[in-house]
Design goal:
Chain A is an alpha/beta fold and about 425 residues long. Chain A contains 10 helices and 21 strands. Chain B is an alpha+beta fold and about 140 residues long. Classes of the chains: A alpha/beta (about 425), B alpha+beta (about 140).
């Protein structure tokens, strides 16, 4: 395995914590000034002026922004610049049928590319390498975010985009890419197809994986199957996309790019900050974004922050792997799914009780979702065609509302466990869950 | 003319079918015949019993999803063309068969087809009018011995 040498992309990654604090404070004031151009923030900030921010502790005076706030401002209500200044628009996977759009000015795109270049460098990518992108190149921030980051480094790009794994394997083998960019589960999928096609070892040396929750065990598996050095990177479109944080070559947590984002880790119930090292919900505030500045965005991602110095020299705080979510959102094959959407689907077709259980497995490398639905006695038919029709109807309703294909299993009424407290609606067998 | 059939929803897991069978056995209910339609994940057990009301009640009491509907039993000549003869009548009348299954009487070995039609009443009339040997409830249970 090729363990990369420690290499820093730009000097801002290593500025002292004191310098960083100073930089964050001045940038926060600038960012607030930008945010005030957005009617939503003008109202939400309720007269609070950038000058009122005397220290970073004053950040806590600012209101949170949630996904619901962004949705209410669909499509481009959060824009702080003229539409003519937009250089790019991306979108997050829509959970209610509509995506949430995010916009970038040219400067935003430049900053973003630089952020991606940083973690790509940290994970081993150099300008003489060839990188294969198997993220979808489209509205999804992953594909183009990484594309421009690789471009910034000067490495070559194979923009394979998503899908057709057999073809991906041929490209990876024949073009001999050095680096692979995709989700961790897709990396395992590629490994499997390569093996099936009799390819013992793809020429890959480095892998940059993100976009979904994964574990150290999964990293070990990817590394042993693909023989590459795998790093984790994190981001979400609302903040900027990939590049919010990423592993260095020591892989002891992902360095948050704190010169561009302030990160907080809070108790999702009390909204108070948790102690360093404790698990909490990550909250990000953008410091340099022009098109869509965002203040205290509640990611719902549960992680922890480690402020101890890192051997690599980067001073950015390190965040642990995302352990889970503070809401009940599931990420299934890259699509955001809420259990309530399954319930909505069942209620919509007015057949089948809204008693269900979602079971998520990753039998091969792709997520497999089974939804067990209790049959209502009045919907039971002695005719198999009608039963199959009912099953298909449920399947179609879930597909329409949650935008995912699931295996529907009809089960007997009252066969799903009724818990006295909060109903257990989800069994996620993919990764270790938070306590 | 029409026979009551009990259908039971079965999850495809070990013991489920046996539980249904035992529920009836413990009450001394004898199965005249049964058919099982299954998919990978669930099945529909269809049974014919004399004391169908008691069976329905017992199964429901034991948590099963049960549905009672009517089927038509028709005797089939046990020789080549026996079934075709009946199907010809059904086809000509434009009757729609949902499903069917066969069994033989224990006493005399006569073959019987159970038909589930979309329109049971219309089918009963057509079959009787065409001279087919439609078996009534009394006959069915008598011949089952």
């Amino acid at each position: 395995m090729n363990i990369p040498k420690n290499m820093i992309w730009d000097k801002d990654e290593t500025i002292s914590r004191d310098q960083l604090t100073e930089l964050q404070l001045s940038r926060l004031r600038e960012s607030l000034k930008q945010a005030l151009k957005v009617p939503y923030y003008k109202k939400a900030l309720a007269g609070l002026a950038p000058e009122d921010i005397k220290s970073l502790d004053d950040l806590r005076k600012l209101p949170f922004t949630t996904k619901a706030d962004l949705r209410e401002n669909y499509p481009l209500g959060m824009l702080a610049v003229n539409k003519s200044e937009i250089s790019r628009i991306h979108g997050s996977s829509g959970t209610t049928g509509k995506p949430t759009f995010v916009a970038y000015t040219e400067k935003d795109v430049q900053n973003w590319s630089n952020l991606c270049a940083r973690f790509l460098t940290a994970g081993g990518l150099r300008k003489d390498h060839l990188a294969h992108i198997a993220f979808g190149l489209g509205l999804f921030t992953g594909g183009f975010g990484l594309h421009f980051g690789i471009n910034r480094i000067g490495a070559g790009i194979v923009p394979a985009s998503a899908g057709n794994t057999a073809r991906q394997v041929i490209l990876l083998n024949d073009l001999a890419a050095d680096a692979l960019i995709c989700t961790p589960s897709y990396a395992l999928n590629i490994a499997e197809i390569a093996r099936e096609n009799g390819i013992e070892k793809l020429p890959l040396k480095f892998g940059f994986f993100g976009g979904e929750m994964w574990t150290d065990d999964m990293r070990d598996k990817i590394e042993s199957e693909l023989g590459l050095f795998a790093t984790n990177n994190y981001g979400l479109s609302e903040i900027i996309g990939p590049g919010v944080s990423g592993d260095c070559c020591y892989r002891c947590g992902m360095h948050v790019q704190e010169d561009h984002f302030i990160v907080e880790c809070i108790d999702p119930d009390t909204l108070e900050p948790v102690k360093p090292g404790e698990r909490g919900e990550l909250v990000f505030t953008s410091l340099t974004k022009e098109a869509m500045p965002i203040i205290r965005y509640r990611t719902r991602d549960i992680s922890s922050l480690d402020y101890s110095p890192c051997d690599c020299g980067r001073t950015g705080v390190r965040m642990g792997r995302v352990y889970g979510r503070s809401d009940d959102m599931l990420i299934i094959r890259g699509v955001n799914v809420f259990p309530s959407q399954i319930e909505e689907a069942l209620l919509q077709i007015e057949k089948a009780a809204p008693h269900y259980l979602i079971i998520i497995d990753r039998p091969g490398n792709m997520d497999k979702v089974t939804v067990k639905v209790e049959l209502r006695p009045e919907d039971f038919s002695d005719k198999m065609t009608e039963m199959i029709h009912l099953k298909n109807e449920i399947h179609a309703a879930i597909q329409r509302i949650a935008q995912i294909g699931v295996n529907v299993e009809l089960v007997a009424p009252y066969s799903l466990e009724r818990s006295s407290g909060k109903a257990v609606r989800v069994i996620d067998n993919r990764v270790n869950k938070p306590e | 003319m029409k026979i009551k059939q009990i259908s039971v929803f079965l999850e495809n897991k070990p013991g489920h079918l046996n539980h249904a069978a035992k529920t009836l056995a413990d009450a001394g209910i004898n199965l005249v015949t049964l058919s099982l339609a299954d998919t990978e994940q669930f099945g529909i057990l269809r049974i014919i019993v004399k004391e169908w009301e008691k069976a329905e009640h017992l199964l429901k009491e034991n948590g099963f999803v049960v549905k009672v509907n009517e089927v038509i039993a028709t005797q089939v000549r046990d020789e080549p063309g026996g079934l075709a003869e009946i199907l010809d009548v059904i086809e000509k009348a434009g009757l729609n068969i949902e499903y069917m299954y066969a069994f033989t009487f224990r006493c005399n070995g006569e073959a019987v087809m159970m038909f589930r039609f979309t329109d049971t009443d219309a089918a009963a009339k057509v079959l009787t009018d065409s001279g087919m040997n439609v078996i009534g409830e009394i006959d069915l249970f008598d011949k089952s011995c």
